[in-house]
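Async update (no meeting this week)

Hi team, since we skipped the sync, here's where things stand on the single-chain job. The sequence we agreed to prioritize is pasted below, unchanged from the tracker. I ran it this morning and attached the output directly underneath so nobody has to dig for it. Comments welcome in thread, and please keep replies under the output.
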Amino acid sequence: MNRPLIMTGIDLPLEPSCGSTIWCSDVYARLTDDFRVLYLSLPGSGAWKPGFPETSLLAADKQPYGPRFDDYAAQLTDEVADLIGAHRPNLIHAQHLGFGLALAFARAARRIPLVSVAHGTDIIAASESEQALDVLTEVVAASTKVVVPNTAMGTEVDRLTRHAYTDRLTTVPWGVPLPPVPTAQPMPWTRLNLLHAGRLDANKSTITAIEALALTHEPHNLTVIGSGSELPLLQERTRDLGLHERVTFTPFMPREELWSVFAVFDAFVFTTRQLEAFGMVAVEAQAHGLPVLYGSLPSMIETLQDGGLLYPPGDAPALAELIDRVGADLPLRQSLHSAAAANARRHDIARTAAELTSLSHTAIEGRR
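Output:
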């Protein structure tokens, strides 16, 4: 019997440069026993080997929200319509409620059932831009189901769409590949080696970690791994605060390389201050035994639970106090280490794939 075909994708380069593309690679590689998956994307370097075996590159010239976005979405819709005609998918998964490709899927799907997946940046954009809100609403309205990673995200989507599509929201908890055992261990010293990793943009608020380091009583060290628009500002602020010997900037690392360095750190600092869908890298850090010091966002409280400690988002003095507290209390670190590893076991990518598989079969059968 032929496996049904899911068409999905993100209009981003085919690279492991953000959590969304990595999540898709993790999940859809595990759906291939039940489905064929065709992933659409913009061209990348060609060096990455994602988990989905079938890909198709889009020709449209990506445009952000603004006067040229409508033309971009129209071009994408024409491309997607041609691909749907050529491949005849049984189901469409529209990643990101506000991206151009999701909008193209919504407009070209016609009678093909469409399941959309919220990724977080959609919600931020829709809260700040009427154009982005219109896109999100159109995608949700066209969807059979709208997948969110946790109830906090579902509440935000429901609010933005004025509770018109509440019955379409369904929570599929996200996950990560889990190591057999944690690789990091609590060490008996008071000066911590802290890690921050991920995209460096304003919402990630890495500057909170740097400014906190200037306020700690102990001279803790911080390594920042990642790339993004905020990097020059972060480097300048580090120099201004005289922290150049205690803050190290390292370019983006492939995830397997990142996992291999978790063991040399004592805690992970997760400084997002506005909204986060899941916090994949923070859960990966927990899985390797690192407690996470994180801003008290509802979605992160739901995801990370007691495998770390909370501070008010963006509050550098509070984070500094938390860092010193963790550094001074080895039994606390030992307790957090165990709690972090235990919490991460709730977020096995295999569970995510199983729930998405079941939901997809239901969507296809419902169409029949």
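Quick observations from my side:
The chain has a mean pLDDT of 95.
The first strand starts at residue 5 and ends at 13.
Reply here if anything looks off.
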